[in-house]
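ligand=nicotinamide-adenine-dinucleotide
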Amino acid sequence: MGISLGLVGLGSFGSQFAKLFKAHPDVDRIALCDSEPEKVKKFLEDPFMADKVNPADCYATLAEICQADLDGLVIITQPWLHAPQCIEAMQSGKHVYSAVPLITIPDDEETLEWAAKILQTSRSSGCQYMLGETTIYRAQTMFCRRMAAEGAFGEYVYSEGEYVHDVDGGINGGSNLRKVLEHRTTGVIGSKYNALMEAYTQRGKFGTPMNYPTHSIAGPINVMQTRALKVSAYGTPNSNNDPYFKHDDFTNISALYQLANGSSLRISELREVGATSIDRDESEIFRIFGKSGSFSRNVWQCNERSTAGTAKPIMETEPYPQNPNWPWKGFKQMSAEEMRDPLPQEVQNQFKLIYNPNALPHDDFQPQGHGGSHPYLVHEFVNVVKENRPPLLTAEESVHYMAMAVAANSSARKEGEIVKVQNLQ
Ligand SMILES: NC(=O)c1ccc[n+]([C@@H]2O[C@H](COP(=O)([O-])OP(=O)(O)OC[C@H]3O[C@@H](n4cnc5c(N)ncnc54)[C@H](O)[C@@H]3O)[C@@H](O)[C@H]2O)c1
């Protein structure tokens, strides 16, 4: 028997996941919830959804769907709502999937309080908490996790992660942050945003781009399975009174962390830069350097030193890109297909039908959405619920991302003073 899931938040991003959850072969029943009735109606009336959705399973509020008999809730609502909503869902006995981040609000102490409450509630309710971070299932991250498991990086030395999304980027396609803010702050729920932000401003609480830190931090921390100990960070403020940034101290922030594994990590969150943010493979990116192997821009490079002893580094010989006559040992340009982990064939077969209803079993499946991560996030959450096991990105690791962000904010506000990262375990 399959599982039952409720989808809460069918807006711009949530609607990209509805058909994937419906198509998964281990999902029997889908409930829908949004405070905007037309967003629910769109999926209720979609023939693709018909065999797993029925009108009695449609809701307008989180409180109502929490009363329903469902195994899990997928919460893809506005970012300042995630933590309280996930707590309410777990308290009603449901496993939860949360859109990133754990929460985005301008009050760092409050952020840490919510993070601690997420951990406590997951433990006391016995419900799993999965943060739906797309970087965790990018092809690059899957490949680096396999290399890390083999010990092929050797001793870690240095890594970088960044999320570059200029406020005016995406005007020729992709996501434009001014438009995103506009649609998230309209409607029954969204229209409460301005009053909420004004209350924080009155209390002297301002945000930074680190309040949305998961795309940049997740790659290096998840691959290396380590924790940050302390940080020194710097930020740059907006200087032309741009109303988009009226609730922010900084529009760009960069942080250098000391990690528990002895290496250092540079994280940058940039929102006011001369970058278009169209190519997400360039704007949500990480690099990891170890003493034996390194990964950067889809290239794996290694030497024959291995601190793990049993590791078998990829020592293929490939032409050096700038000079095809120059064979380059220990250098491998990786394609997305080579880097990805496989999805089970029966799952691929169902997902294929979303994009092409006439797809045949032998047709290729091309994973889509944020570097092909969306189908993997869906498959992982379905299995987390089915097996009642912690997700690959655990609740503990998810709260650590927020602790890292809060420490960086604190350091940047003190001009780079070294700040300890709180241990929220
Ligand atoms: N790469 C990524 O991981 C990525 C990319 C884009 C967006 N996101 C995240 O996805 C989330 C959603 O973004 P979006 O652009 O779809 O927002 P959106 O405003 O388009 O959609 C949110 C929806 O949630 C509904 N909602 C909120 N609270 C509700 C409640 N209590 N009951 C019923 N409905 C409720 C709203 O009515 C709205 O339709 C954001 O938090 C964002 O951070 C992540």
